[in-house]
Design goal:
This protein is α+β, with helices and mostly antiparallel strands. The chain has two domains: 138 residues, Fructose-1,6-Bisphosphatase, Chain A, domain 1 (2-Layer Sandwich); 100 residues, D-Maltodextrin-Binding Protein, domain 2, CATH 3.40.190.80. The chain is 33% helix and 27% strand. The protein has an eight-stranded mixed sheet, with helices on both faces. It has a five-stranded mixed sheet with strand order 12-11-13-15-14. Strands 1-2 form a two-stranded antiparallel ribbon. A hairpin with a 3-residue loop joins strand 3 and strand 4. Keywords: Magnesium, Metal-binding. It comes from Sulfurovum indicum. Its cofactor is Mg(2+).
């Protein structure tokens, strides 16, 4: 592993160790609107401070919480707490994401970690994706499931018409609420779907882990799957719902 990847792992281990016994009551407090547009909690800011401590000497950090931190030709894009609402509700599906963009503008390293169960996924400078556990030196190829029974649909609550179409087609899904984590698990599920406006913090690292899968990234939706037919079917559904919405607006419905 590179020094950068190792530093990311140490940062995640420090955060995980702090969370291991119980949440500090002050972490639930809300502070102010962060650079990503959401209100930051003290837990978000704690996680950010750990990443800044471990990664700031590698380049300029762009964080969902505080925006640009430090200087440098290398940019490190972080979401210090992916799935903040889950974490603050003690729902065990939350983690972190880090992506490094080198001086040539190429994303050459990424790390996504599930703090709730210790799964960690890394994209190395050799362009390989590896999966391991926090506090363990063992890494392997990402696990994959050929006949996945469910997909992951982030932001499903805002897309009722699309949900109805998917139900009619028998496309089962869950909506766990942490997009970087969901993208990291793309090898094990039927699909990962996000529909709505999105920010670079949420997707940079997760998408870097999806190399070799079928991926569609548009302005307001992202589809990832092992199966090209599933990707095409979902995109057709999205376009159909958009068409129906336009007709409803046109007819004043």
């Amino acid at each position: 592993m590179s020094q950068f990847i190792e530093a990311c792992i140490r940062a995640n281990e420090e955060i995980a160790a702090a969370l291991q016994n119980s949440f500090d009551d002050t972490w639930f407090e809300k502070t102010e609107i962060g650079a990503g547009g959401d209100v930051s909690s003290r837990l978000d800011l704690f996680a950010e401070s750990v990443f800044v401590k471990h990664l700031s000497h590698f380049g300029q950090i762009e964080s969902e919480e505080s925006g640009l931190i430090g200087e440098g030709d290398v940019k490190i894009i972080i979401d210090p707490l992916d799935g903040s609402s889950n974490a603050l509700s003690l729902f065990p599906y939350y983690g972190t994401s880090v992506a490094r963009v080198n001086a040539r503008g190429i994303l050459d390293a990424a790390v996504v970690c599930n703090l709730a169960n210790g799964d960690i996924f890394v994209k190395t400078v050799q362009n390989k994706t590896r999966q391991g556990k926090l506090f363990s030196a063992d890494f392997q190829d990402p696990k994959t499931v050929p006949g996945s029974e469910i997909g992951l649909f982030e932001k499903a609550y805002a897309n009722s018409a699309l949900i109805a179409m998917m139900d009619a087609e028998g496309l089962k899904f869950r909506a766990p609420g942490a997009i970087a984590l969901s993208l990291a698990y793309a090898q094990t599920v039927n699909f990962v779907l996000f529909v709505g406006p999105f920010r670079i913090y949420d997707f940079a690292a997760g998408l870097a882990l999806c190399e070799g899968l079928e991926v569609i990234v548009e302005q307001d939706y992202v589809i990832v799957s092992k199966d090209i037919d599933t990707v095409k079917k979902l995109e057709e559904m999205i376009k159909k719902t958009r068409s129906l919405e336009k007709e409803e607006v046109k007819n004043g419905i």
